[in-house]
Specification:
The chain is mainly α and 365 residues long. Helices cover 46% and strands 7% of the residues. The protein has 13 helices and five strands. The strands form two sheets. The chain has a three-stranded antiparallel β-sheet with strand order 3-4-5, with helices on one face. Strands 1-2 form a two-stranded parallel ribbon. Helix 3 crosses helix 10, helix 5 crosses helix 6 and helix 6 runs antiparallel to helix 10. The N terminus is likely disordered. GO terms for molecular function: ribonuclease III activity.
Length: 365
């Protein structure tokens, strides 16, 4: 089994407590190389953005009015980068830990992409040096600084993605792009003399970022499709998530153990008792078994007794083993036992088996 095989850590105790748990600082580990931003304009957007304090929500009432579109560039890169991070963390988590239940997967994904984690990654990639703090804000808390650092990291991912699917005259469309012929045909029908750069504009790249692509000259890199760009980021982030997830899961296991030991009554792990499928038919046959046994007054010396014992184990529903004992008029003792989830059914089944042993009824009755 590999390091990240199907083994599942026990982190199902209290979802809320483990999700809200604040991880300690990550230990030192090797970082995969930071993907470069091939678009100088996108690079300038990140370098020139000024992080400010949190604003009251009343300032954002007119959210669909883009009266200052230049200031939306950074937020767009950040939102796209955040979405790509979430998608990658979710899919990578399910691919790497297929045995995880939904709760464990959600906890891992939450800790991988939360601000307190991303700000540490940003610092290790030296991206925190790109943060420009608003001089009008007099006090910056640790939370504010971490938020600004994580925002730069998310924006960097968004910028890498957009630079990968961008277009300039020095770039050529990848030959294996499925929609190349279609888009070329559409562009030809529209205007055969139109510059080839208009073909890639049908990729639906956000207009604000497309308009800036005329300035790009990123080392003659080939343009990637959106799927190829995501695979590129997925490959990089998977190498980043691997050591991070190992540390996260180790810390969550420690926190779960601490949480369990602090309970007044530590939780017991319960199991579901395996019920054989033939029990249902047997119980149907044994219906009325106690009545048949107790009605044999001429054959039975004393009233039959039933000894019930709870089966050992931490079961979600307690199963019972019942031993029925009957003594006939000749003093011979007849016994039979049965195990059932319900004690009454176990007694009935044990009585029915006793009747079969004594020859009072046949096994098929």
């Amino acid at each position: 089994m590999s390091e990240f095989g199907a083994e599942q850590p026990v982190i199902q105790t209290d979802i809320n407590s483990l999700t809200a748990y604040q991880l300690p600082s990550f230990p030192s580990f090797d970082l995969p190389p930071l993907p470069p931003i091939n678009d100088p304009h996108l690079e300038r957007i990140i370098d020139s953005y000024t992080s400010t304090g949190l604003r009251p929500l009343v300032f954002d009432q007119d959210v669909f009015v883009m009266d200052r579109p230049d200031e939306s560039y950074f937020e767009e890169l950040q939102l796209v980068g955040n979405a790509l991070l979430e998608a990658t963390a979710t899919t990578w988590g399910h691919d790497t830990f297929p045995a995880f239940r939904q709760g464990a997967s959600s906890q891992l994904q939450s800790h991988l992409i939360r601000k307190s984690t991303l700000c540490q990654v940003a610092v290790r990639y030296n991206l925190h040096t790109k943060v420009n703090y608003d001089p009008k804000v007099s006090i910056w808390t640790a939370t504010d600084i971490g938020r600004a650092q994580s925002a730069v990291f998310e924006a960097h991912i968004g910028a890498v993605y957009y630079s990968l699917i961008g277009k300039t005259p020095t770039k050529e469309k990848c030959d294996d792009t499925p929609d190349q012929t279609y888009m070329q045909t559409q562009a030809t029908e529209k205007d055969e003399t139109e510059d080839k750069s208009s073909i890639v504009e049908t990729h639906h790249v956000n207009s604000k970022l497309e308009n800036s692509s005329n300035e790009i000259s990123p080392n003659n890199c080939k343009v990637k499709t959106r799927g190829q760009a995501f695979e590129y980021l997925y490959s990089w982030l998977s190498h980043l998530f691997k050591p991070m997830s190992k540390f996260i899961l180790e810390e969550l296991k420690k926190e779960e153990s601490r949480f369990e030991s602090s309970r007044p009554n530590p939780r017991k792990i319960t199991l579901k008792f395996p019920v054989p499928p033939e029990w249902e038919l047997e119980d149907t046959k044994a219906r009325g078994g106690k009545h048949v046994l107790h009605a044999q007054h001429q054959l039975i010396k004393v009233r039959p007794t039933y000894t019930a014992t709870a089966l050992d184990g931490h079961w979600d529903v307690q199963p019972w083993k019942v031993v029925c004992t009957a003594v006939d008029v000749n003093g011979k003792e007849w016994t039979a036992e049965a195990t059932r989830i319900i004690k009454k059914k176990a007694e009935n089944m044990a009585a029915w088996k006793t009747c079969v042993e004594m020859g009072l009824i046949s096994v098929d009755e």
